[in-house]
Specification:
Layout lengths: L7 H10 L14 H33 L4 H65 L3 H7 L3 H74 L3 H30 L29 E4 L16 E4 L5 E3 L4 E8 L12 E6 L4 E8 L1 E2 L6 E2 L4 E4 L10 E8 L4 E3 L8 E3 L2 E2 L6
Antiparallel strand pairs: 1-2, 2-10, 3-9, 4-5, 4-8, 5-6, 6-10, 7-9, 10-13, 11-12
Helix pairs in contact: 1-5, 2-3, 3-5, 4-5
């Protein structure tokens, strides 16, 4: 006959797991009204996202038309509308996350209530098993009148013992589910904090856009002739600025040692704005090296990701903020990269995030991969809301004062960001 024994170690393990034990019917769903409210918020978000996309399409169409005062005012109006929809989206997301936390809390509370009920039952179960294991095989045989009864009792205890491993595994799985729900609730709280920050900054960006509209009207005094004259002058100044940068970068490129760069491979950098095919809202509008009329046929020196103004922008990797600046002289006189953030990484590469509507980091700040650093915009020499992502050989980067741009303009040996995304 098999020995009937339950090790003290196993008993302690079961006792420790007892605090999370509950029966299958404790996987109670949150109240139907709560689930329905969450679904309604999801539908509302879907509708808002469709409206944002429509506004983005209108803005893209307006950007493709010839420049005129009326068209520029229309673009700003579209932008303000888009931002207002983004603010509404953040508000609904926060409401949805709060409802999801309520639903998770309901499930967790139900489980914890059942834990209290089951704990005593498990303790009693363990006490009975300990009592039975004190009886050796001979005592089991002697206390019963027949051999059949003795064998049946012994087999019953053996069966209980052999089933303990399975019960322990079940308890572990249940505990993992409970821990997962707690982590999920914590994740929702983090998302609420993030959306609250976005909401606050988006409101600032809306005010900036409204001031841009007023500045444009004031500067031109609503006269198309004056507006077109200033456009021509701005384009000439921007072209002169671009030529100066090209000359500096060409000289730096001659000193470039390609062997110092990390091997080209995906995943070195995180996408600062997710594109549509990756579950985000961005759309690649121009690749590195492509030529266009906007750059007078010269190759593009970065990767452009079109995205609604106010879209969060994240650091591509761990690093230190080398510089935060603006090349715009005013809300009307906008040059080169506009508002930008330059981050130096520990792999001989630096990344540039340009045309931001707002930045939320400062010089010298250490940032982590995926950390919020700003929001997409259309500052600087830009035809519409997008992020210009540049990548440089860190040792070559210089911050130059180049007229007519304000602030300092980053120049250096450029590389293709997509080689590392």
């Amino acid at each position: 006959m098999k020995s009937i024994f339950i090790s003290p170690k196993k008993i302690l393990l079961i006792a420790s797991l007892a605090i999370i034990f509950y029966s299958p019917n404790t996987f109670a769903a949150a109240p139907e009204e709560l689930q329905k409210a969450i679904e309604e918020k999801s539908k509302t978000l879907e509708t808002i996202n469709q409206q944002i996309q429509l506004t983005q399409d209108n803005l893209r169409a307006a950007s493709s038309k010839s420049k005129s005062l009326g068209n520029e005012i229309k673009k700003i109006d579209y932008t303000i509308n888009q931002l207002s929809l983004g603010i509404k989206s953040s508000e609904v997301k926060i409401e949805k996350y709060k409802l999801e936390i309520d639903a998770l809390s309901y499930d967790i509370d139900k489980k914890e209530e059942d834990i209290d009920v089951k704990r005593e039952a498990i303790i009693k179960f363990l006490q009975e098993l300990q009592e039975k294991q004190r009886e050796n095989t001979l005592m089991v045989l002697l206390k019963n009148k027949t051999l059949a009864k003795s064998l049946a009792e012994a087999e019953n205890v053996v069966s209980l013992n052999s089933g303990l491993d399975k019960k322990v595994q079940e308890l572990k799985e249940i505990k993992n589910i409970l821990d997962g729900q707690r982590l999920e609730a914590s994740d929702r709280k983090t998302k609420i904090e993030s959306e609250s920050k976005n909401l606050k900054n988006q409101k600032f960006i809306v005010e900036d856009q409204k001031q841009d509209r007023s500045a444009l009207l004031t500067q031109t005094k609503e006269q198309e002739k004056s507006y077109q004259k200033q456009l021509t002058e701005l384009e000439k100044q921007q072209n002169d600025l671009a030529d100066q940068i090209d000359d500096i970068e060409e000289r730096l490129r001659k000193e470039f040692n390609i062997s110092l760069l990390p091997s080209k491979r995906p995943g070195v950098f995180l996408w600062p704005i997710l594109t549509l095919d990756r579950g985000g809202v961005g759309r690649i509008s121009q690749h590195f090296g492509e030529k266009s009329r906007l750059y007078r046929g010269k190759p593009h020196n970065g990767l452009d990701i079109a995205a609604p103004i106010g879209t969060p922008v994240y650091a591509a990797d761990n690093g230190k903020v080398a510089h935060v600046d603006s090349n715009d002289r005013s809300r009307w006189q906008k040059y080169q990269y506009g508002n930008y953030v330059l981050i130096e990484h520990g792999n001989f590469l630096s990344t540039l995030y340009a045309h931001l509507s707002r930045s939320v980091v400062v010089d010298g700040q250490n940032v982590e991969r995926g950390q919020l650093i700003g929001y997409s915009g259309s500052t600087g020499y830009s035809t519409g809301p997008h992020l210009h992502l540049g990548a440089y050989w860190s040792a070559s980067v210089l911050l130059k004062k180049i007229y007519p741009a304000a602030g300092l303009v980053p120049v250096g040996v450029i590389v293709d960001p997509e080689d590392y995304l």
